[in-house]
Specification:
Layout: H1 4-10, H2 19-45, H3 53-73, H4 81-105, H5 110-130
Length: 134
């Protein structure tokens, strides 16, 4: 269990988003950032590392964007829907790209398969939350 939902439940003011969807998205973002960081590191240890350069780069970009988005979505005072929307759209883009890249290596590298799944789950969560932002 994560602390995301309990923290959202303790927020004393109104949050203009569905708290359950918000918590699920933050959790997916954190999981994706971790998977991408670990996958990039694992790629660097593979004998075929030269063939994984794009995968490493995409993993690092995805981890950074997802981590930043999770932190921004965890703050609610002075909320700006335009910023959240832009970050979620960036996550959808980078998670699709990273999921596709890792997916192309999934048959050879289990860490890429796991990472691709995390990216796809995160992309779906971000799309789901985006659909609720007015």
């Amino acid at each position: 269990m994560t602390t995301t939902m309990p923290m959202l439940e303790t927020y004393p003011a109104e949050i203009n988003l569905d708290r359950a969807k918000l918590a699920a998205t933050i959790d997916a973002l954190i999981a994706c950032a971790e998977a991408c960081t670990a996958c990039a590191d694992a790629c660097l240890s593979e004998e075929s590392v030269a063939e994984l350069t794009k995968c490493v780069r995409t993993n690092m970009d995805c981890a950074d964007i997802c981590g930043t988005t999770a932190r921004v979505l965890s703050r609610h005072t002075g909320y700006d829907a335009n910023i959240s929307r832009a970050l979620l759209e960036a996550c959808v883009t980078v998670c699709k790209s990273c999921g596709d890249e890792c997916g192309s290596h999934a048959e050879m590298h289990e860490h890429c398969r796991i990472c691709a799944e995390a990216c796809r789950a995160c992309e779906a969560a971000c799309r789901d939350l985006l659909a609720t932002i007015s």
